[in-house]
Amino acid sequence: MADFIKKIANIDRRYIFILIALTVIIPLLFPIGMPVTETKEVMAVYDYIEKLPQGSAILVAMDYDPAALAEVYPMTLAVFHHAFSRKIKVVGMTLWNTGAALGELAMREAAGDIARVGEDYVYLGYVVGDVNVIMRMGEDISAVYPTDYGGKPLAESPMMKGIKNYKDIALIVDIAAGATPELWVAYAGDMFKKDIAVGCTAVSAVGYYPFLNTKQIIGLIGGMKGAAEYEKLVKSRGTATAGMDSQSIAHILIILLIIIANISYFVMRRKDKLLKKA
Amino acid sequence: MKLRVPLILCFLCGLLMIVQFFIPHPPFTNMYEKLLDWAIIISIFTIVIGLSSLIKLHYTRIARKTPERPYSVVVFVGMAVMATVGIINGVNGKEFEWLFKNVQVPMQATMFSLLAFFIASAAYRAFRARTLEATLMLVAAIVVMFARVPIGSFLWQHIMPDSVLQWRENLPEDVAGWIFNVPSMAARRAILLGVSLGAVATSLKIMLGIERSYTGSGE
């Protein structure tokens, strides 16, 4: 028995890798369809956009790179889908250079046939500067982005005729893989008194609860589960919903592994104590 | 003189930015907008510095014939290909987009996805309830992992008897919510306050010339 426990405690990590791979792949191939329940943090973002009058404009900052794609790309698409279906104009941009092309891909994919570039959405792309960009856009967006990502002068976009700075933006949504929400909250939220919503990876989500508590952000879409909740709310099943089964089973596996590891630890510790006494 | 000019410039610019915050009228608003434009332009030069630093590092590896030099060659080839395609066809061109979608995106996503395997293995080997603090962390981690996926609510609502469900319909999610909104938030708020106060102190030190590392003087 003690040898078995010892073997379990020192199991080759490749077996763990195989188990993780199977728990991710099998539910993707054979979906279980576990129900996703909405949380109030995600509902807050949805309700805010739902209540915006048609023709309002929102700014979506896609501050992520391909590494965080699995978690934040589905929520980006879901937010765009929501905005376009409600005839809300979207100004897209990014503070991450590796996210520049991703933002354009996301807007194009979400727009499909329901939204047109220049009339319903504009993608501004990336400019170096982080805080300086956020602050300058508060005065004049075209001073930072004289052209859109495709090189077309902003003045020629019908949509941008009525949008000069944050005063013409109803909501700023920062979908981030890093710490940019803190910059948006500090500079756009506090300086320019704009409402900010945050979408982020699950790991970062816990760090934004202080802002949620003080109402510095109006809502929070955290991780793939948050993305799946938003997909459910906008009735658009995407990769986040599909990934929930895999994530659920993988979490259960990790919990079981931790429990088994601790049981083996305590058994081995007790055995060592008994040996020392003897 | 060589040291004094940057210190005086730093102090004056910092002071101007503070003053304009409290006087949002011309000429301070015009000055503020100009300074922001200059800051954005100067930031662009950081890309040049980053690029030259990267080239220097990898060139040195190739020149010294280190064992990792094949990867440095790959870095140069990748950089040259993406830059050439981007400059010739534009960043909106089909070729650049193809390279980004089919090379960079899958590679970067894959690198990050490897974390899942290593985290599982590390959790199995290192997550032990050796002390009280470790036990608390372990319990909190298990509760959050269980509650933050749909299976947590699903199992709770299908396993628990009706009497328990009437008391708490979704206890795992309630407990995870409490962890996020009370102890975790308190700790996070303390860290944010500490970092913010540190940033204020460092900014004052830079403005007053106490912190001079940006001048390259080594102090």
Explain this structure.
The complex is a heterodimer of chains A (278) and B (219). With 278 residues, chain A is an alpha/beta fold. Chain A is 54% helix and 12% strand. Chain A folds into two domains: 2-30 and 244-277; 40-237, MTH777-like (Rossmann fold, 3-Layer(aba) Sandwich). The model of chain A has no long low-confidence stretch (mean pLDDT 92). Chain B has three domains: 1-89, no CATH class; 90-126; 128-219. Helix content of chain B is 81%, strand content 0%. Chain B is built from eight helices and no strands. The model of chain B has no long low-confidence stretch (mean pLDDT 89).
Task: List its traits.
heterodimer, A: 278 residues, alpha/beta, Rossmann fold, 2 domains, six-stranded parallel sheet, 12 helices, 6 strands, 54% helix, B: 219 residues, mainly alpha, 3 domains, 8 helices, 81% helix, extended
Q: Indicate the mean pLDDT of chain B.
A: 89
Largest interface, counted by CB within 8 Å of the partner chain's CB: A-B, 68 and 57 residues
- Domain unit count of chain B: 3
Order of helices and strands of chain B: HHHHHHHH
CATH topology of the largest domain in chain A: Rossmann fold
Fraction in beta strands of chain B: under 5%
In total, how many beta strands of chain A? 6
Tell me, briefly, the overall form of chain B. extended
